[in-house]
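Look at one such:
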Amino acid sequence: MAKREYAFYPGCSSQLRGSAANYLVSVESMCEKLDIKMTQIPDWNCCGASISYAGSSELARHVLSARNFALSDKHLPGQDVVATCAACWLGGRETIEKLDASSQLLADTNEALKEAGLQYKHGTEIRHMVEVLVEDLGYEELGKPVVKPLDGVKVAGYVGCQTNRPFGIAGESFENPMYLDKLIETVGGEPMSKYEEKVSCCGGSLAFCEPEKAEKQIKNIVESAYDNGADIICTPCPLCQANVEVYQSEINRKQGTKLNMPVVYYSQLLSVAYGGTLKEAGLDGHIIQPKKLQDIAVKVVPGKR
């Protein structure tokens, strides 16, 4: 039996064959080493992170999240819901806060859920995977499975905005959260402690509708990593990872720059440090290859074939 068990909500991006499928792969590898059991919520649906901003109602968005919580309560009672996507986590936190505060919104939500034979109940909790690592395990415990320290890898810990405001990680500063830096240190890497763009927004969906604005922000995020001597950028957010990696080539094309900074997930750092292969760490799914991390992943663990 696993040491810890959670109801897992992968979200659209991190699911199998999703845009951040390598995130899911690395999380599964990481959790196996940490003896964490993540059971996917049966028949989960999109959290509706953008639906209310695309012409739908607030109620529709909260019903979508509440349905996931109701399914979790039905099939995996007593287990905290864990999300790997920052937007899913943020939207879920907001839904819980709004439903617990408004009896009318709760009644309207449950009226909609009744059509599917479901009910949202007070007491639901959704947590980001990082919260589980930091709060339930702690850095000392996270350091125990390390067999391939990330010696010589300089990492810019890019938190972004969604895992930082308005909720954030318990005990962390909104202006300078340190949990990514501490995770990097825990697995033997070198965090760029003066990385100025740590909590800047990557532009989010502006990359689709107003690309110039998003690309300006992405350029700042990447150039700051270079200025601080980083080899890679590390993030807890699938959208941040996608935007900051994918749009570097477009910025180069438009502005004549030569940006080529790898962008990875914290779970990939941990997976590699725990002995994960290229495939187990999801390092075979990048546009910009994180070569330093890949070189460590292919090393043979001392004493093992």
